[in-house]
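Allow me, if you will, to draw on your knowledge of protein folds for a short while. The matter concerns a single protein, recorded as an amino acid sequence and a row of backbone structure tokens. Kindly check, if you would, that the fold set down in the tokens agrees with what the sequence suggests. You will find the record immediately after this paragraph.
***
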Amino acid sequence: MENKKIVWIASYPKSGNTWVRFQLLNLLQGKQTDTANLEKIIPDIHKSSHIRDMQFEQNMLIKSHLMLTNDMPLVKQTLAFIYIVRHPMDVMFSNLNYSHLKNTNVFNDEEKKRFDSNYINNFIQAKGDSRWIEHQMGSWIDNVHSWFSARDKFPNAILRYEDMLTAPAKELTKINTLLGINKSDEEITAAVENSSFKSMKAIENKEIEQKKSGFFYSEKNDTGTDKSQRFMNQGKKNVGKEILSQSQLNAFSEVFGPIIEQLGYES
């Protein structure tokens, strides 16, 4: 067991992974006023590709959006995992917003409506975002199944994004227990407050406006200057039902309904 050193913070993209990492960073190191330490303390395997072949001597927290498979980088060093799951409809719309953030085209209203509808139809058909499928993250359904099926194999904490919204301290306590870091209730409450959506949004705005290197800004990828399109978008739930057409709602329910029910979500 000596080589079991990695605790994964895993999720499908746009499910709250960055939020959990920032909560945990605040819990481990006290109040954070920027994201400069995030990648140092809890690296992202997708950004820090050099770590994929490393053999760790100390326990490490590593972010991943990959499916949990026998071929996943560093999988043999898995000690435990934290998995964040979010309702797939909200994941879909959050990824759609992210598509706008990364899309350099300037759409008029009609073009944007057509782009959005095509994205939604493709997400439902593929059961996830086709970009992430191409990057070994799988569909949303496959990603969730891959980690949930490993609950008997590794110590774990399963967090629902929606529960993080309503009872964030309770969810962070699960991580505190899993990692055995013995932080007090007061420290957990402070970490939650210091990593609230409002706090993270303020940090994002500051880092972009001041061009300060961190999670939200880098000189290499100078994006996000439009305040209407930021990584920290809304952080809300149940944003899609009024937007989807009835045929899209029916198709979504047919594809995602069974697993939504298994996860305890309302259909």
